[in-house]
Design goal:
about 100 residues, mainly alpha, globular
Length: about 100
């Protein structure tokens, strides 16, 4: 993790990742930030249900857990674009950390 960046706060969106001042894309529109927050919340819920109920699951997820989430999205019939957008969100989030 990079020094000087706060960790996401459980139950408060996802901390600095979706705030105006620290979002990886400073020029991102409010709806984009809201969509990313919702996508992170969905992944966090997936981790709580199938992987680990601990409060640190989002911060310590492994590639296998991301793969199982992506498989679930496919099984739910989500469009490929939707799955790709969610994967992009996760990729940016973990790069941010």
């Amino acid at each position: 993790m990079k020094k000087g960046r706060a960790l996401p706060e459980p139950g408060r969106g996802h901390g600095p990742f979706t705030s105006n001042r620290r979002f990886p894309k400073a020029d991102a529109a409010p709806r984009t930030r809201a969509a990313y927050a919702a996508e992170l919340a969905d992944f966090a819920a997936h981790l709580r249900q199938v992987a680990r109920p601990d409060g640190q699951a989002l911060l310590t997820a492994c590639p296998g857990e991301v793969q199982s989430y992506m498989a679930l999205l496919g099984a739910q019939g989500l469009a490929a674009r939707t799955s790709a957008r969610r994967l992009s969100c996760l990729r940016q989030f973990y790069r941010f950390l």
